[in-house]
Specification:
mainly beta, 6-stranded antiparallel beta sheet, 126 residues, 2 helices, 12% helix, Immunoglobulin-like, 3-stranded antiparallel beta sheet
Length: 126
């Protein structure tokens, strides 16, 4: 999981866009693997889902399911603001851990290192 910030060339120089969480899954094995879900998970196992496209501008989300060969990567982006608002709307206002998660078609769930975030700060992110 990383932060992605689009940059735009404007008449007055460069402008930074909205901040996004970018979740990536890379096949580091020697056999193909099929990814069926990619996203972020809360400590209780609940996952954040977006009903509208929140892809990083210029970098469309990987269409799932997708089969990855050795070294290939799938990714999913969701804006800081959407994450913050979703957490606040569900009553979570204190710091919380977010985990990147990936489900494959073999039934395995792969969970990465967590990020501690503040939903209020994320909801106000630009």
């Amino acid at each position: 999981m990383t932060t992605a910030v689009p940059t735009y060339n404007t008449i007055n120089g460069v402008r930074l866009g909205e901040r996004y969480v970018k979740v990536e899954a890379t096949n580091v094995g020697h056999r193909p693997v099929t990814i069926k879900a990619l996203g972020v998970q809360l400590p209780g196992g609940q996952r954040l889902a977006s009903l509208v496209s929140t892809a990083i501008p210029g970098i469309p989300d990987t269409q799932l399911p997708v089969t990855l060969s050795d070294g290939q990567t799938a990714h999913y982006g969701i804006s800081y603001a959407n994450i913050g608002r979703a957490l606040l709307d569900s009553g979570r206002s204190g710091k919380i851990l977010l985990y990147p998660v990936c489900d494959d078609t073999a039934g395995d769930v792969h969970k990465g290192e967590p990020w501690e975030i503040d939903p209020v700060e994320y909801a106000q992110a630009q």
